[in-house]
Amino acid sequence: MHIPDGFLSPQTYLPAYALAAGAWAWAARGLRARLDEELVPRLAAMTALAYGLGLVMVPVPGGTSGHALGVAMLALLFGPRLAFLAYSLVLVLQSLLFGAGGITALPVNALAMGLAGAFAAVAVHRALRGINETAAVALAAWVSVVVSAALVALVLGAQPLVAQRADGTPLFFPFGFSIVLPAVLLPHLAIGVGEALLTVAVWRFARRRRWRAAA
Amino acid sequence: MTPAGWLAAYLGAVVAVGFVHSPAALAALFACALAAAGRPRWRLLRRALVAVLAFNLAVSAGYAAVALWRGDFAADYLLLVNLRVLLLVFLGFWFVARVNVLAAFAFSPTLTLLATLAVVQAQHFARLARDFRLAFVSRNPAPARLADRARHASAQAATLLDKSVAGAAETALAMRSRGGFDD
To answer: Does B183 fall in a domain?
Structure first.
């Protein structure tokens, strides 16, 4: 669901950078103390997996892309702060190496997918894990995808209102909420099912190897 | 110019491009960037075109359909948005071609550490996946059944993750021995 470069106005991405900078500083606080030889390889492997998942994307007619995130997997295994940092790193690498996403869209993509997606996953998992662990993990992953997609769609849909010429011609992303919300959300309802299956598989893999979950 | 200088110039150019709303001015800026990129310009342009093609086609076709239906089609908007996206992606690829991306994280040793491990892991994944695929093909002279493919994919995924964690653990130990975890 990356927003590509060039579709967000500076009026959107500059304040988003300010917000994201605060979030990155908060997430990085005390990071060195938490990273050790046991956590770093696991985090690196899962970050690389999220990086690979994000590159298998299909364009969505509403103007963004559909792909699995891996954010729920990162958040449930390492907590939302590390998940946000790791996914931000994934977005930077995808943007610079493959032109997927972009530097102007980075803060919105990171806040929507890396931060909101991670917190949504952890919240759902905590609420439901007492009932059924597998269902809690699956639903956490599905909700993280849908929440992230909804936020991305809202930011994109606001662009014709934020920046347009005097005659109403858009300057950045052309579609309003009525088009972009269903165009982005509907495919991600299905993508969320794939994300849920993947997250449950990785969760079971981690459990079999006795990784200590963060969430 | 130092990597930090290139990074500052790149970020400044990216922000400036966002404030240009004239297709003619963007085309002139794009021509300047192409001229300044030197010998790799056509390779970079081809990469940028491939990277933006699918998304820009989807947005452009969608916009054209909706705007024609509404009767407010503006060809200069299509030119503006496609030129802007192409220029931004070209600038990104040009920056990466000139500067080691990992050097851009030099301000944070922790980010450098994570980025190095993630990039190495991504390459490790790609190599392992190719080896597994070739091995599977070589063991199946006839096309494999769907159930066989599913079993293979499941076994491959678990092995990939195990190998990846083991590889990253080795890299982390090597980095520790060289002071990578020291403040």
So the answer is: no
